[in-house]
7-cyano-7-deazaguanine synthase (Haloarcula salinisoli), 233 residues
Amino acid sequence: MTTSNDRAVVLASGGMDSATAAYEAQARGYDELYLLHTSYGQNTEQREFECARALADHVDAADFCHVETSHLQQIGGSSLTDDEMDVAEADTDSDEIPSSYVPFRNANLLSMAVSYAEANDCTAVFIGAHSEDFSGYPDCRPAFFEAFQQVVDVGTKPDTDISLVAPFVEWSKTDIAERGLELGVAYEDTWSCYRSDEPACGACDACAFRLQSFQTLGEKDPIEYEQRPDYSD
């Protein structure tokens, strides 16, 4: 099999990190992007799907693949998928694994992304995980991605060469927002809130980190919020 060095899969969650990762992939010379979006029963799955689809249009994606992964909801264990669990209030200083952690989700998503990449002769899979993720989510840590790269190398065909790329793994959310603004990312078509489709709550961890990044940069987040607390340092 001949792979194409300008093709990459991007895990597109609908959020600002994965949107920035898609633009970053283009900036690195990957002109043909294959976007993979999954709905797994998360609270805001419809809005996330709409944003991921909009991203595909913004980057003129070569393909957009939407996969239902309801087994993650059936397995449970996360406030994003279990109606009996409340999404916690924001605590940007906590190092504890939050209730929003979906058990081993990234391994599930990356497995599908690698399958998608191998089927389409892509040479890279981009994921938008960053340093503030891995402080709470074990499947966002650099060691996890390094280990998963070994799985990719061993578990694909001998002539397949796919690199797992987490360009922001050592970056803060603010670093990502700054890079995205440089690249012209359409942040108005991204969604981060764990609780609501419209407007964003402004009070969960995802909203807090997002608002904090824009506030630190002195920029206004273009999406609507129920409340906009000041999270700047």
